[in-house]
């Protein structure tokens, strides 16, 4: 199916379909009371700050422009830090916020490279991405809090992991649906679990 879609349309699909998926998920969450009804657009915007840079990196890497991913990471860093309320920002050193967010986005692109351009097997790609994203998210927030001398309790760490898991499950699903319309190049390592499962 992907080969029948024009490359420009493939790229647009990878950017916009995940946003529609995230919007639908958050809208359902608002209907079920999981998030306030008035905040599903805000939740979608926050999720898009991860989904769009990942989509852009995948597109750039496929067309051998991966080095531009650093610019994407830099822009994403400034936008993300800019969305933090002044009250919350007062708890952190501004320099640490920018540095840790930049490292976070660059590392996330590294995980995206491993997941979508090295590993083979559609299911395994998504598992690696979700697991790697969760570990990266947890470590980044814990390190940021530790740098700013915030007291870390088991409850705080558990909440970070829980929120990170929810976030990357949604983003992983959204990106996976977007990739149904985007043709990835051949992977370097063949670990095709989908075929093995079919054989069983």
How would you sum up this structure in a few lines?
The protein is built from 8 helices and no strands.
Please explain how this structure is put together.
With 200 residues, the protein is mainly alpha-helical. It has eight helices and no strands.
Radius of gyration: 18 Å
Estimate what percentage of residues fall within beta strands. under 5%
* Unreliably modeled segments: none
Determine the N-to-C terminus distance.
26 Å
Structural class: mainly alpha
Main beta sheet? none
The level of helicity is: over 70%
Total of helices: 8
Write the layout of secondary structure elements.
Layout lengths: L6 H25 L8 H23 L6 H14 L3 H4 L4 H25 L3 H26 L6 H26 L13 H7 L1
Helix pairs in contact: 1-2, 1-7, 2-3, 2-5, 2-7, 3-5, 5-6, 6-7
Keywords, separated by commas or semicolons:
single chain, 200 residues, mainly alpha, 8 helices
């Amino acid at each position: 199916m992907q080969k029948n879609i024009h490359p420009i349309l493939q790229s647009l699909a990878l950017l916009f379909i995940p946003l529609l998926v995230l919007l639908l998920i958050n809208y359902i969450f608002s209907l079920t009371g999981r998030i306030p009804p008035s905040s599903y657009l805000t939740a979608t915007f926050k999720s898009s700050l991860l989904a769009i840079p990942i989509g852009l990196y995948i597109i750039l890497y496929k067309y051998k422009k991966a080095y531009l991913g650093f610019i994407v990471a830099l822009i994403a860093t400034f936008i993300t830090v800019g969305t933090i309320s002044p009250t919350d920002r007062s708890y952190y050193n501004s320099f640490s916020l920018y540095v840790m967010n930049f490292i976070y986005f660059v590392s996330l692109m590294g995980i995206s490279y491993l997941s979508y351009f090295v590993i083979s097997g559609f299911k395994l790609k998504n598992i690696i991405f979700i697991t790697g994203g969760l570990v990266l998210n947890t470590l980044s927030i814990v390190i940021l809090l530790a740098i700013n001398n915030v007291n870390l309790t088991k409850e705080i760490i558990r909440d970070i992991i829980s929120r990170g898991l929810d976030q990357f499950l949604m983003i992983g699903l959204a990106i996976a649906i977007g990739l149904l319309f985007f043709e990835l190049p051949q992977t370097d390592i063949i670990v095709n679990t989908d075929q093995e499962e079919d054989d069983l």
